[in-house]
Amino acid sequence: MKRRPSPARVRRPAWRPALLASTCLAASMANAQDRFAGLLEETRPLATRWQTDYRGSLELGLGISSADSFMAGQYNGLQDQGGTLLGNLDWRRFAGAESYWQASLSDLGLDTREGELRWGIPGKLRLSAGFDHQLQVRNNSGATPFVGDTALGLPADWVSGLTTASWTALPDSLQRFDRELERNNYHLALDSRLSDNWQLDSSLRYSTRKGTGDVGGAIYIDAASGDAVLLPAPVDHRTLEADASLGYSGERLHLRGSLAWSDFDNRDDALRWQNPYSSFGPRVRYPAGEGALALAPDNSQTSARLSGHYLFTPRLRLHFDGSYAVAEQDQSLLPYSANPALTVAEPLPRDSLDGEVATTHSRARLQWQARPGLDFQLSYRLRDRDYSAPRDGYRYIPGDGGDQSRPELTVYNRSHDLLSQTVELEAGYRLPLRGKLALGYAWEEIERRNAATEGTAEDRYSLEYRLQPWQSLSAKLGLTWADRAADSYQWDQSWYALLDSALINVTPDSQRYSNHPLLSQYYLANREQQQLKLDLNYSPDPRWSVNLNLLWREDDFDQSVLGVTETRLRSLQLAASYLPHSSLQLNLHAGFDRYEADQGSRAFRGGQEKNAFATRAPLPQASDPARNWFLANRDDSLVLGAHLQWQPQERLEFELDYRFVDTRARQDFSPVAAADLDPANLPSVDTRLHQFDASGLWHWQEAVSIRLQYRYYRYQSDDWAWDGVAANTIDKVLTFGQRNPNETVHYVGLSVLYRWQ
């Protein structure tokens, strides 16, 4: 019987043994004087050599999932129970320095398939074209009585009422719907080296996004008591993008300039729905009443960017990067109301927003090595956002629930200009034991328009110390302290910018605010931040290593009475790698994160109770500190993982991977002195994931391998917002009644891999 050649005897082109022999000879000659000479030796594992030494490979097979899943299959195309085709293709051909081409296709039988065809001349030209299909599957266990696409209607036998509990026809009207978003991306790229110094790159991309999402809507006169619904929302987007860049590489100067353009087109302008409630008059309630929401508007953006660096001397270097972008939105405005029966006395002030936002980003960094072991770095960053849109008053109809509002209730569109500047200085000095000490200082100033705080300034100090006392141990310690100071908190600024002077003049001074005057927005408030980071790496033997990463950060909003007052983050990550043999490798990982935040607010009604500045009894609710409530948030997450690669023999490989994730979110209220307030702690939200993957690869013949895959997926969640909440559980909110994820999925895949010369 003729003996089958072993993989070690696979035929190779005649030049390869000679090349390998000369490489090994060069390595052995250099080994005596070069301790890195071993890097020249052939160290690729057998499977890697087989894959790269062949011109093409084709993999075909079948995968089977035991159950439908929207968590396990959220992004990987394995959301449906049953069988799926497994298909991958990789085909390439190189003609020396003349030309080459490559073709690749992956996940052919899944909704996550992608492919690319590439042709080029090495070092001169590359032309590529490809596609990428993605599918996102979300929780599809909910149902809705609405039917339609952008105009949602109710069944003919619908029975309306003031609350969801009175809709007797609801149970029979509920229909399941898929919450899936499908994205198709197509791209074409051309890269060309024009000369030794010049490089041209360009690309054209077209993408579509289609499916069904979700959105909340309401019909109301007073937003505090709206008739709310959750709605299936259509998604039908088109995006076209193009860019081109030209790069120059000289002896001292390196430059890259680019131009980019994008256009976003939403095929749907608005989402309309029939009012299922009977709370208002005959023009608004079921069956004549209708609500509407505007969907994402069409827009475009044009941008330019210039980046590079210049080498003044071997010890002095300048890096720079700047960009300018203009985004435009000129979508036609929708009518004040989708309900034609409502009275509109004053038309829209304009047909479209005609809005424009110009954004400038720039950064420069100067690096200087003053002397061996001592270096400095100075950098500057600028971010400028400039709104340009005519300011007009809109006499809106609140919630499609009544006639046009009174003239004094007119609201105005606002600009949110922003200017941010940051200057950083860092000095580094080399110390014994392969150590380095780095000191840094940064100053950042941000100016905002129509915000509660016109400007904030922050000082940041940092200290970093790295050392390696032994070859096997390295450590890095980083300390950061930051202090942000804000201008006077003007709680009424956004209120003034939004409303009409007629309403402002009749509103008492003590009620001219949107947020309570003692409630500070956390990103605008005074804050002290302290942070410590510690990274350790221990590798006493080339076969194994251990890494430890610690992070501690605390933010103290010391001037905030209400709002977020303190946040704390604790993180511990531990990873280990063990390589007892060239055929066996084990990696372990464990991590724990805890995030805590304290926040508070004050419960009060409107009218006279909105007076926030009274000092004498009886105090209105907005002035009464006894009505303060405080909430302590805590999020914990535990992650464990293990990965094993094992090749017990030349023709057989195994790979095992296990992941465990456990998260818990808690929200606890503190007691409130006011007798009518008795907040209850919210239930904790727990999630738990187990995922185990196993695969084996058997190299049956020189060109044929067989792959076997198995996955176990277990996911559980007990979010109280979904637990036991049916579509009509909440009186004034129609929900989907979706369930908590509770999935157990087994997946098996078997495929044959064929390679050819």
Descriptive notes:
There is one protein chain. The protein is mostly beta strands and 757 residues long. It contains five helices and 35 strands. It has a 26-stranded antiparallel barrel. The chain has a three-stranded mixed sheet with strand order 7-13-14, with no helix packed on it. The longest helix has 17 residues, at 15-31. It is globular.
Keywords:
757 residues; mainly beta
Strand content: over 45%
Main sheet record = 26 strands, antiparallel, barrel
Structural class: mainly beta
Helix count, per DSSP? 5
Global Rg: 32 Å
The helix content is under 10%
Number of strands: 35
Residue-averaged pLDDT: 91
Low-confidence stretches: 1-50
**Overall 3D geometry?**
globular
Q: Give the termini distance in whole angstroms.
A: 26 Å
